[in-house]
Amino acid sequence: MPPYQPWPQPPYFAPVPPPAQPPVNGLAIAALVLGILCFLPAVGLVLGLVALAQIKKRGERGKGMAVAGTAMSGLGVVLLVLSLVTGAVSDFADGFRDAARESSENGGTFSLDKGRCFDSLGDSLEGTAYDVDEVPCSGGHDGEVFATFRMTGGTYPGDSRITEVADEKCYALQDSYVMDTWAMPDDVDVYYFTPTRESWGIGDREITCFFGSTDEGGTLKGSLRRDETTLDDDQIAYLKAANVLNAAYASAPEEEYVDDDLPGHKRWAGRVSSALADEARGLRSHDWPATADKQVAALLRDIEAARKHWALAARATDADTFYVHYVAGDKLLGHEKAIAVRKALGLETTLSDEAPGGSGTETGAEV
């Protein structure tokens, strides 16, 4: 069976009441409603532009709603009607272009940087969002942004293609934000904000990847960030070495049984053997503190012994021989030595109840 990452229980963070938020601009809401309904588009356009000016002056919320309403109303204004308007046409057009340009520069109707936390204005993290409330990560919140990236192209690629790109890249980028996978709560998953067909038309190309709770009505408490900004050099060195093995374990064949794909499992064993060699080099190349030196040395001995068995599994001529060396190599990579190192380095040491028996230092593979 392919391995999977163990997820420990989240650490406790005392809730911190969020600061009072400024009110949402009423004209921004009206502009969004008119834009969605395609009703009185000229009115929606004017309300959106006025709302943007008021929000900037008063420091109110609702900028994303105002920009979205302005964009949709602007697109709905009939060219014939615009041709009959005098004087104000150029002002409206300039205002619309400015709003669209600002939206594009900010990455979309609203933009959140990596490491920022927010509350959703809706009942869930799924569906269409026009704005969010940015809040401190120290308290409870609905989402935490861990990566952003931009798509390219002039023509809207379609919902399915955008979702495919977001799904692939966001899941790949999460490990660089949470290097310590043991510190990830069980009830957290990856979500993302993507451009809509309408926002794409005004220059929105940004995809925002964020963590959110899978529990209905659930929230996150405290930041999940575990990278160079929050970890020390010793912790980073250990996690970088261990995560090489994680990636190799995660590349197991889709076929669960070795008899069904012996060549595929042998190639997998070869990748694990190479990853163990890389992990050992990474651990040896670092100058460990005295408090962790013995624990790392003990882990290295098991890694070297396990690597030999995985190498033999990679050269096995039949399934029975593969299993003999696979089981021996996997047993040598139990959680105990990794936990000892983690404790010495001040990293998370608790595994979730759903973590499998047997591990590749950080992940498990069940026979």
Automatic annotation (TrEMBL):
Keywords noted in UniProt: Membrane, Transmembrane, Transmembrane helix
InterPro entries for the chain: DUF4190 (IPR025241), Septum_form (IPR026004)
UniProt signal peptide: none
Domain called DUF4190: residue spans: 27-82
Superkingdom field: Bacteria
Pfam annotation, one family: DUF4190
Domain (Septum formation-related): residue spans on this chain: 124-233
Transmembrane segments: 27-53, 65-89
Protein name as annotated: DUF4190 domain-containing protein
Organism: Streptomyces himalayensis subsp. aureolus
